[in-house]
Amino acid sequence: MHNLALVLSSQKKYDDALMAANQAMQAFPTSAEARCLAGTIHLERRNFDTAQRLIEQSLAINPDYHDALFALARLFFEIQQIPKSIEQSRRAIETNPRSAPAHNLLGCGLRELGDLPGAIAAFDACLKLQPDFAAAYTNLAESTTFMSADDPRFKAMSSLAASLAPPDGEDGIYLHFALGK
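and the corresponding structure tokens:
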């Protein structure tokens, strides 16, 4: 049932995915994975209260479950509880340091709070882990454009971002445009 829910969710068949996830929760009441999956489906549907309840139940079963930590970080970002999103992103990274999406989300949260050097470092970490993570290129470009052109970090980060972005891809074109190239 869990795998069926994953497939249906990836196809955006959320009603059917929820039925499969609910069946998985009934069959395996102590499954952190089934609760997290159901919570993530509710998150996709923007049912934030139900999503939070299920994700927190998942974490009560397994406090170090990376997928649930990341889902909770996403939820907090969506509902504009940025400090909580950052905290959960960091916890997700602690449980899986190679999670490029968690580094990207951490960067988004840090940027929202105005910590541009921290955001840029998080996007850089994301891109080192997953060089084809397109959204991280855009996030990195947007973060560097918030910095003053006179800031020495701007030139360093701009050069880094330009060297990482494929120039013919959408994010590369945006990045080079944002940097005035």
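(Above: one complete record from the training split.) The CA atoms of residues 138 and 156 lie 17 Å apart.
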